[in-house]
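Below is one such record:
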Amino acid sequence: MSTQLATPVHWQLRTVDAALREALARSLGLSRTLSGLLVARGHHEPARVRDLVDPKLGALHDPALMPGMAQACARIRLAIERGETILVHGDYDVDGVTGTALLMRLFRMLGARAVWHIPDRFKDGYSFGAHSVTRAQATDARLVISVDNGTSAHETIAQLAALGIDTIVTDHHEPPADGTLPQAVAILNPKLADSTYPFRELCGGAVAFKLAWGIAQAISGTERVRPDLRDFLVDAMAYVAIATVSDVVPLVDENRVLARYGLRSLQTTRNHGLRALLSVSKLEDRPLDGEDVAFQIGPRINASGRLGSAAKAVEVLLAEDETSARRAALELDLFNEERKRISSELLPRVLAAAVPFADPEEHPLLVLAGQGWHQGLVGVLAAKVAEQYDRPAILIGLNGAQGRGSARTVAGFHLLEAIEAGREHVIRAGGHGQAAGLEIESERVDAFRTAVNIKARAMLRERPRPARRLLIDAELPFAEVNAQLMRDLDRLRPFGAAHEKPVFLSRGLRLAEEPRLMGADRTHLSVQLRLGAQVLRGMAFHKGVRAAELRMGQDIHAVYTPKWNHFRGETKLELELIDFCCG
């Protein structure tokens, strides 16, 4: 079977203004390597660089600036005073689960009557629906607070209102294109058309955190919250860091502060559930980075919602003793192993389905559908397809006459804009520029594929995507890849969207020994690279097929990110090998 994969990557070395580099190094006492990397990325103003390398909690924006905050806090305080039941209505991904746990912990701390609800991916679908009304009535809730959903839930929120149940929406998804909003008491969403909030790229968990902060201010009677609530908010940033990294929002502005301090809170948390997750992920007793969340903690939280109900993930985060937390975390671990197994088995079928649509001119947006594809895993696989083909991808798992799909994009392509062009063919759809979900009748998939690709072609004519390139921050002598360099780079962590990992180029390396294939399916490549006395291991993930390119005694030019590898109590400096060429 042949598949048209992504085009080869063009290496592009960033340029550095030497005068700006030297001025920045002198001004802030930075190394030439770190100041050069920052200048190459466009950061040369000392004040802004200082905020980047040493972000402060004071840089967080006042929650009072969020649209609807005053109305939301007033209604919540009234609910607490009246003893009304508050239903926290989350979603089944990491963002929704962590935000739900955050608000539940706050309400428990305040002595409020609160219960939670997470939709079942397979029975209920995304966001609000009939299940929301049923759960609100069953719990006698008078107030529903959404987390990571609800901005487009006109019908359900109207049904709740007719029953005398108020709704507060906290969300970060794009509002409906026609500008209409549901009849909620308040809608906290920095992306609303009339929002003046200074930063629009918060994840759903962060918006829930802003609400918690606003409630804390309202209860304290001042912007400076009382000590116990301040301690809660600092600890709760652990949830926000997990949500921020997992939802792949840009790690700039507030998100950088929330992720940086949230990872510190996660590392020191005494929360039983978070400690149990760190334990099963083998992340205890060492510094945490964004990749630890992205590849270890986030997938475990997501796994239960992908394979069944996300209730188990909420139970972990709300566990009140070590034993129950450990038991629930081990269940999440088993879910995650099952997720990996099913994904591995399904991927070849997905790639086979892509073959008829391999022409990038005709199908710049891949829309793939299959009967029996696991609906909880199509998002994971859409990301793999998008990476492999270097094209946005929508994968739809069909179950008889209907299907549910998830979409993932690539740099420079706004997903939701394309999906809107196929709106008439779907039951419902929602999301944002980077990721989206939809429900569709099986018979409408072909028409939907045609419509969104017509739109995608028009979008790319107006705004062509740049040639696929690998941006390299600097060419670096191999001997300078050392502990001092890592201390410099640590000042820039965590890395993520819009704040990518540093990428370096070193030329003229040699193999110190024959390359080895790694992993259960032998798809990863392990190499020992040397130059003079310096020898470092490099791991090239998913590049096992390129092992034959490497020969002993041949010069190797390597593009990589240096990283610490923590394994069995040992910490070693290694390279994440991104690309290489020989000659």
Q: What stands out?
A: The domain at 358-462 is CATH 3.10.310.30 (Diaminopimelate Epimerase; Chain A, domain 1). The chain has three domains: 10-15+470-582, 64-335, 358-462. The longest strand covers residues 570-582.
